[in-house]
Amino acid sequence: MITLSDIPARSQMPLTLPMGIFVVVMATAPFWLARVGLYQYLGVEIAIWVLFAMGFNLLFGYTGLHSFGHGAYLGIGAYAFGLFQHHAAISLWGGLFAAIAAASVAGAVVGAFLSHRRGIYYALLTIGFGQVFWFSAMKLHWLTGGEDGLLNIPRPDLVIGPWRFDLNDNAVFYWFVAAITIAAVLLMWRVVNAPVGRVLQAIRQNETRARFVGYDVWRWKWLAFTISAAFAGLAGGLFSMAQQSAYPDVMSLHQSGIIVMMVLVGGGLVSFWGPVLGVVLYFVARDVLGGLTEAWLLWYGLLFVIMVMVRPEGMAGLLHVLLRRTSGQVSTVKPEKA
Amino acid sequence: MPVFAVNNVLHMTSLVPHIVNGLTLGLLFALIALGFTLIVGVMEVINLAHGSLFTLGAYLAMSTIGASWFAGTPFGIWWLEFPLNVRYFLGLALGPVLAGAVGMLLELCLRPTYGKAPLYGLLLTFGAAIVVEEAIRLVWGTGEQSMPVPQMISGAFLMGGLIFSTYKFYAAGFAIVAILMVWLFLERTPYGAIIKAGAHDSEMVRALGYDLGRLRLLVFGFGSALAGIAGMVMAPIWGLRPHLGIDVVIPAFLIIVIGGVGSFWGAVAAAILVGLATGITGAYAPAWSLMSMYILLIAIVGFRARGLLGRRSALEN
What we know:
The structure holds 2 protein chains of 2 kinds. Chain A is an all-alpha fold. Chain A has one domain (4-327): ABC transporter involved in vitamin B12 uptake, BtuC, CATH 1.10.3470. Chain A has helices at 17-32, 40-62, 71-88, 92-114, 119-139, 141-144, 170-193, 195-205, 207-213, 217-243, 253-266, 274-292, 296-310, 314-327; strands at residues 158-160, 163-165. In chain A, strand 1 (158-160) and strand 2 (163-165) form a beta hairpin. The two termini of chain A are 26 Å apart. Chain B is mostly helical. Chain B has helices at 2-8, 12-43, 50-66, 74-80, 84-110, 118-140, 166-188, 190-200, 202-207, 212-238, 244-259, 264-284, 292-303; strands at residues 156-159, 162-165. A two-stranded antiparallel sheet of chain B has the order 1-2. In chain B, strand 1 and strand 2 form a beta hairpin. The termini of chain B are far apart. Chain A binds chain B through residues 66, 113, 116-121, 123-125, 127-129, 131-132, 135-136, 139, 253-254, 257, 260-261, 264, 294-295, 297-298, 300-302, 304-305, 308-310, 312, and chain B through 46, 109, 112-113, 116, 118-120, 122-124, 126-128, 130-131, 134-135, 137-138, 243, 246, 250, 253-254, 257, 261, 287-288, 290-291, 294-295, 297-298, 301-302, 305-306, 313, 315-317.
């Protein structure tokens, strides 16, 4: 089986081929989306969920901590953005900052409870906390608007120096979201290639050994959870702008499970870029299969089950094997410089 | 506000119905968790499809009782002439058996994940849960349906000036009988001994000449059938909707972890604890009653990593 170290995020070059493809595709999407039968808003959705999934994979794929309640932090970000617009000020950066801050604080508190736990107990506690947040969002009517959620969240204008952009235009909004997603993904790339990323991967491979080497594993697990929650919060802020509302549905266990499915199908366990493939496949499947049959999730679920059975390393792993076969290479693992 | 204050003071007597409700709910939770704990104990697979099999069993039983597919056919007309009691008991038998068969199919799909990290079993059953739920939606539609119940166990009765639902007592009694029967099966029969040995040391069981593959298949089928029985019994109380599964599997999961993975009586004790917590919270803050189980989970697992009566398990790695 392939692992993350077979498809290393680290490379001798600052710019790798997948990164180039990612940036070019994200940057040019508005020009060809309509031509291939898709639409602008889908691009916005995919960009937001790519940001969420990649941030989630720092925890799930890199650190090996299996959170099944991550939708909660996306939801907290969305509510924080909406509440900021409604009660503090109509401000783009203020709202996004509030979204990141709220999700990070929630993540930091939950992470403090979680970080002593391992394996299935870790996963279970993330479900428990996720459900507490979801339940609170449903029941705290005075704050969150209950099941209907917060409505009429504005999209404030983007002001850069003398220029003012109206984000209510979906094309302009796409550029904004894509720019933030690209910046965030490049930041994550930096994180996983820094020594921090090495420590996180060491914890995934063998937590006990990482502790014996001298790392304070508790603190690193806490940090990974908090960072991941912060990215989820940013994605949540953008999500509430996109939907112009925030509602408890995204915080449900179902949605938290879907994000795990996306990351796994894409190959987040073996590749930094895996989650991107998974998110794109999910949304395109939703629109294409969803146009053919009501029960598209049934087919997606079957695809997922088969994937776990025969190819748990996902699309990225499949691609890797195919590329290796066609180029006749024996191994892609390059010797590291000392 | 004095009126508000008086209303808020609950005397012990007014708590009684909530405690009774909590106890019956706890017994039903134990029934739900029974098949789940069996599969976790023997195979160390967290079966997230448990809730969907629960729902599937209930839907199949409902269709058997009401003859929903074949109502127009001569067979359906002949069948519907039977008294409800007869049809009810056949549904009680057939729903769980079919749920068990689907569970066995799931076990066959799970085979490639044995020997890998427990995450893969968890993910596969999560996918299976979605597939079963969508299939239910496709066959029976998205609307809420209700399960017919024979007259002798429906209605309500008066006890000590308080009204209790007869069906809840029937269901709680059914749960007690089922729990005892499963316990006797595990403790007092040679099959139970093999299953427990499989949970303890599967390699040794294989070395003794038992077919481990068949054992796992049967345990999974049995656990899924227990899910189907629980679904059949719970359906008249909770109603039937396709996404019921997720409301069911989470309490089952919580109960196993609070009770300690692999502990039979730990799970039963945890179920009753969760039921009581839900019932008593319902007395003071009805809107929040379902939240209490998550708080209980965080409180208990936060301090006792392996739950009330848990032992070390491969699932921790």
